[in-house]
Design brief:
It contains 16 helices and 25 strands. The protein has a domain at 454-553: GMP Synthetase, Chain A, domain 3 (2-Layer Sandwich). With 554 residues, the protein is of the alpha/beta class.
Length: 554
Amino acid sequence: MSTYEQRPWLARYREGLPHDIDREFDSALAMFAATAARVPDAPIIRYFDGTLTVRELDRLSDAFACGLLDVGVTAGDRVAAYLQNDPQFVIAMLGTWKAGCVLVPVNPMNKVRELELLLNDSGASVLVALESLYTEVAEGVVGSTAVHTTITTSELEYQARNDPRAFGGSERITCNGTLDMAEMLERFADRSPPPVDLGADDLAFLTYTSGTTGPPKGAMNTHGNVAFNAQGIREWVGLDGDDVVLGIAPLFHITGLIAHVAISLLLGAPLVLFHRFEPSLAVEVIREHRPTITIGSITVFIALMNTPGADREALSSLTKVLSGGAAIPPSTVKAFEAQFGHYIHNAYGLTETTSPSHLVPLGVQAPVDPTSGALSVGVPVFNTVVRVVGDDRKDVPVGEIGEFVTSGPQVVPGYWNKPEETEHAIPGGALHTGDVGFMDAEGWFYVVDRKKDQINAGGYKVWPREVEDVLYEHGAVREAAVIGVPDEYRGETVKAFVSLRADHPVTEQELIAFCEERLAAYKYPRQVEILEELPKTATGKLLRRELRGRSAAG
């Protein structure tokens, strides 16, 4: 069988760590309650020049829960959070749980159609939104949904610095017909909601997939899923209350929810937030708050590498660096380590695995597959079995490519109100990820690509990631994305889109020639298009579907 269970080699990296771990808490709320009892006066959120302690966060979230109950929510209701990386996100999350409800994180980049779809699919009865997002988007949407109460807030709360790189020219806005969050919290200050009994099977989040293969689906992340993976990251990376978490991933995304917020609530470690990612601001935030750990997409770290003032001293505190959510070129890992002295540890997971299912052990460098050039995504984490299966859903031999099928305590029980989708993707609780890769003889796993992104060039299979990794080896290339485009002779051929580093001119033909020297004849791109920026999701994933549309239109 091609499962990690047959590969005990990792034991030498796990000295003092159990192979299996028990979930300490039945719910994510219980994690925070234990922290509030243990270290009530510890700082838990740092936001520019503002700080919230554990005790203050506990009281604010109590008040938020009382406000929700006052407008008529009942246990199991959904509360949508249409926010950036601000303290109000954490307050609303905890307050939602304290009211016995489920949080629905919403991408702040979503526009009218997308927001309306998520609100209607989730059946959310309450919407918490930034004032600007309400006036620009949500105000015209809520009337056609089940939302009966909208709570608005400003990113300017909880700090006084008003850095224009984060906020631009933001000002407070009066939002007619909504509840002001600050006023609500003041009204219910020092009041506590009735206790709730949340168990491992109760829903903590509905996190919506990116919808790359159809309409977004709401993954039902349970409190047990959240508590298990928060604990797993703590044990795997070796974290404790002395760590400081840099909130560089969007909090609406499963990575931010688990590896930033849940970890902070479990450890009682400060979570450093700065509204939204901007590279020069991020460097200053790191200098000021001295975070020790973060996880983000590789595009974030590429941006930091190209930011003036980002040097070894600036990032010296950030000793535990992880990256997930998008493919990582080995050349970028080497360049980051050369520039800052820190190795980027790969991570792999999906919304449906409540963040990581695989990690590279801290202090260990992931191998690079000599054939495909892919950097390993690590090995399955505690209590997790990952099979590699063929089209017949039977295990393939070690080293052969197949689809990853993941089973473990972090796998969601299904999709919200979509039993057929659940049965198709998670039959018997085993998640068919749609990601294609292989396991080597030592137990390292490698993701080659998504099934649907494979290019068929005259009968030869080409995986975009392999071509992208070669492009990243060119000194002029900042970002790269590869797609298949129609070709009269071969049926389909390879096209690359790239953005360039500043002061590194190069032509499309030079890049084609560079790849031709390093790839088989059927793999190297016949077309290269240079763009100023490549389209990406809010979490840093390259949007190949937009590039396909651009190519088709062209």
